[in-house]
C-alpha cells in the first residue's frame, strides 16, 4: 500500500546524480543478491546526461549534459554493467573545442523540435545530443532527443540520421508508439498549409523483407493544425488508440522570432523564448488513423503542462486519455536548472513549493459530441467522474478525474504493460516518484481503485521503472519492474533493482562499485 511517509533528504545525497562520470572501457561484473528471474536474459538500456561540464565551462540545465548510454547485461544469472558516451557531433565538438556547444542548450537539446525551420537561417545548428531515450526501428536501435536527428547505436556502429530527409517534419519526440508488428508512429511540428506551423504524425513501417531501411519508407499519416500560426506548443509525447491519434496542445509555446534573436545574442537566456498564457488553456485534438483524417472537434480544458501520456483507449464511443499533468500554465523546465537540483534540501523544497503541482488525470473525449444538448455531460462511462460539456461557441469543455495527487509528489515517467495493454482498457501504471523534483521512489497505481504501492529506501535515487512481462504470466501485472538505482553512500552505489510488479517487493539487485548519474528513459532488450 502507499507509504505516506515521504523521505527527507537533508544530507543532499541526490546532488551526486547530477555530477560528471567517466565512461568504461570494459564491462564491470555485478554482485547479485536475490534470484534473477530466468526470463530476464537480455539488456537494460538507459540514456541520460553524463557530462555536466567541458573543461571549466559548466552546463546549466538538466537537459544540457552530453548523452551517456548505460547497459546492464543479464545472462544465466550473471550481470555486467557498461556505459559509453554516445559520440555524436555535439559530443565531439564539445570535447574538441572544450566549450559547451550552444546547440546543446535546453531549447535545442530537448525543447526545440523544429530543426528544419532553423536550417533556413545561416549559422543556426541543431543538436544531435541524444540523451533522452532509445527505441527500436526495424532491426536497429536509435538513441534520440527531440530534434530531427536520431542516432543509430548498434553494437559497434554509430550513424546519424536526419528525419527531414524523409518526411516533412521539423523534429520528432522521444516517445513514439510502436505496434506489435514493429510499426513506429511519432509526432513533431512541421511547416503546414499557408506557411503556418502545424504538427505531423509520421509512420515508419516495420522490418522490410528486402532488408531495406524502414526509415526510408517513412510517411506522414495526418496533420494537426496549430492553435497559433507562429508559436508551436512544446510537444513531448502523444496518445494513440486502436483507431485514433490524440494530441494535447498545451499553452507552453515557443516564440520563434524571440528564439532567433536569442541565437544572435551571446549569453542570452533561451528559456525567455518560451511563452505561456493561462487564458489560452489546453486544446486536445483527435484524428483517425485509417485513413489519416483530422477530426475538427474543439476539445478544450484548463491550462496544464504535459510531458508523458500513460495510456489511451476507446470504450463505448469514447476515448479515455490518462496522463501525467502539471497544474497551470507555467513551464516546468524552468525549475530543472542544475543549480536548483543541486541545492541544499530546504532550498530544493522551497523551489518546488512555487513550481506547478503534479497530478495524474483522466480525460474522456466523446466521439459523438453533438448527440446531447448544450450544457449536459456527454460522458456516460460508469467508472469515471470525468465530464465533457458542449458550450454555445461549439467548444467541448473537459473536466478531468484525478487518479493520483500528492503535494509536490509527482507520479512521472509512467509505464504500463505495453505489450498487453497499450490502447486497451487497463488497470495498472508504474512510475518514478519525484519528491520535490528529486527521484526517490518507485510507484504503482491501480487506475480503477486508485490504490497505490511504493518501493523506497533511504538515500536511494531510482530511475524510470520498466515493466517486463513474465512470458508465462496471465495477469496484467505478471512480471517484474526494472530500474537503475543510485545510492551514493553505499559500498556499491549503483544497482539494477528488480521488483515484483504485483506488490513492488524486491526480487533481486545487481550492484556495481561505481557512481552513476541520473537517467531519463530507456528500454529492456530481450
UniProtKB/TrEMBL annotation:
Its required cofactor(s), as named, are: Fe(2+)
Q: Which GO terms describe its biological process?
A: retinal metabolic process; visual perception; zeaxanthin biosynthetic process
Q: Which is one GO molecular function term here?
A: metal ion binding
What does the note accompanying the cofactor annotation read?
Binds 1 Fe(2+) ion per subunit.
Q: Which UniProt keywords apply?
A: Cell membrane, Hydrolase, Iron, Isomerase, Lipoprotein, Membrane, Metal-binding, Palmitate, Sensory transduction, Vision
Q: What is its EC number?
A: 3.1.1.64, 5.3.3.22
Q: Which GO terms describe its cellular component?
A: plasma membrane
Fetch the PANTHER family from UniProt.
Answer: BETA-CAROTENE DIOXYGENASE, RETINOID ISOMEROHYDROLASE
Family of the protein in this entry: Belongs to the carotenoid oxygenase family.
Q: This chain belongs to which protein, by name?
A: Retinoid isomerohydrolase
Species the sequence originates in:
Sinocyclocheilus anshuiensis
Gene giving rise to this polypeptide? rpe65a
